[in-house]
Structures are given as C-alpha cells and as structure tokens.
Design goal:
By secondary structure, the protein is an alpha+beta fold. 23% of the residues lie in helices and 16% in strands. It has a three-stranded antiparallel β-sheet. A hairpin with a 7-residue loop joins strand 1 and strand 2. The longest helix has 9 residues. The relative contact order is 0.22.
Amino acid sequence: MKKALNLAASLPAWSAQSSGMQRPQKITFGEMRSTGTRGLIVFCSDYRCSHNVTLAPDVVDQWPDDLRLSDIELRFVCSVCGRRGANIRGDSPRAGIGIG
C-alpha cells in the first residue's frame, strides 16, 4: 500500500494548462446554423458538477457567424459550483422516429 502511495505522489499533476495544450477549436456559429442547429447546451467544465443549461435560439442569435463556439467557452461561469469554463455543444433538432 505504501509503495502505491509513493508512486502516486511522484507522478506529475497533469492538466491541459500545465502541459501547454490549448483547447480544441470548434466550428463557427455560422457553420452550426447551416446544419439547422440554433440552440446551445452549455456544460460546466467540471465533470463532477455536471450542471448544464440550454440556451434558446433567440439568445444564441446574438453571436456573429464568424465566432467559434470554443472562443466563448472560457467566458462562462457555472452558477452551481462557480468554476470558470464550459463545454459548449449545439442543441440539434430532435430526429423523429416512428413505426412505418
């Protein structure tokens, strides 16, 4: 048991910021709108929190077509845990499934 603890303590803490990695670039709002998606789902960047909100198209329409979804992710602050940063995804229209 003690050996495992020493090994864990010697491993460096890893994060995207400490390793110099950047957040991946996502599509632009114009590209998203061209697929018929107009709303957004904003997820807290802390996976343990898992709080999310859905933004209606009238709110999302304020952002210009040339802006990337990834460009605004760091502007969000979770109203539950207070963490800055979000994972943003398009809220696609639901597919209709039926029996034919």
